[in-house]
Write a structure and sequence with these properties.
This protein has 14 helices and 15 strands. By secondary structure, the protein is of the alpha+beta class. 34% of the residues lie in helices and 20% in strands.
Amino acid sequence: MTKIVLTKSQARRYLIAYHSLKDETCLDSDDAIVDYIRKVGCIQFDPLDVVGRNPDLVLQARCARYKKGGVEKLLYREKRLFDVWDKKMSICSVDDWPYFSRFRESFRPYLRKFARAVEFITGYLREHECACSSDFEMEEKVDWHYGPQRLAKAALECMCYSGLAVVHHKKKARRYYCLAENFISERLLSAPDPNRTEEEYHEWFVLRRLNGVGLLWNRGIGGVWGSNVGFRNEEFRSPHRNKTFEALLRKKKIVELEIGAIPYLFYLDREKLPLLETSIESAVPENNARFLAPLDNLLWDRYLISAIFDFDYKWEVYVPPSQRKYGYYVLPVLCGESFVGRTEMRVEKENRLTVQSFWWEDDVTVKRKYAGSLKKAFQRFAEYNLCGGPVTMPSTGT
């Protein structure tokens, strides 16, 4: 099959359709939310909560009825999703459990190292529904994979990463664990690794990341390939990627794309061709503004977004205040197939949403046409945050 040639506008339309971002009603049920997470592989979890944690922000942009904290029902009560280390801390479909076998196996040596603590905690969890590290008086400092750590915390995390335990629920940043056998079905617990060889595993991983974004180029930038399920101690560097991309092309599992005048090839899971064909000719309505999460799947590769959407975004939460161009927790604003601005909001003590700042993109010349969409979006965002009363906002120049 010859390369598919797209304009930037067509690539944008596909990505917006792929990520259920045509409007905020795309994910209209719990089933649709779970299906979306299954399709993209994972959504990132981040503990910072300014106007919702990252998973909440990802889902509110796609689901008009979504309310802050709603994902916890799917995670901890219905157990259709689970917490796992994938694209850093992530939330995945529980059906993906067998694919993490290699990751779990890499932590088994720590089980032997912390054997006495693991045995004690396991016994405790057979008698109690869940526990956190502060429930155990194990104050000894031990070497853990990211540095010295209190034994109780290291042992619990080890049990989770190696598959003996899972996150039962969270209270803010604190994780409570239960035995995996009480959370994951026996069918999944006993399922073999679907990837029988290292080559199959690499191919699965590349397809997972392609589908996490919708399409990708074979470039080791943007943080997509590192900190992942397959290569905990090193990035998935170009020799691995090159060989795997070649194998996927040879097996006709992916197709090559050219996008505008961008001097790099892009790749698409062949199974996504029907969506590509139907979405590229369908205009995206401009009358529905959406605020995206800093770690939204669409934004995983910031260089790719700059190339295709002509939008440069940097999450400045870890940038010293004096060096920030915008603000601490700034969300991109998507209207139609374009990013028209960015905004910083905060939930005040009296349970009011305050829009602290709004910045238009330089190429937005007719701001007035977005006024109604933005007003509706801010009110909807307040409702998602369970805020009452009117939204306090500065002038957006409309």
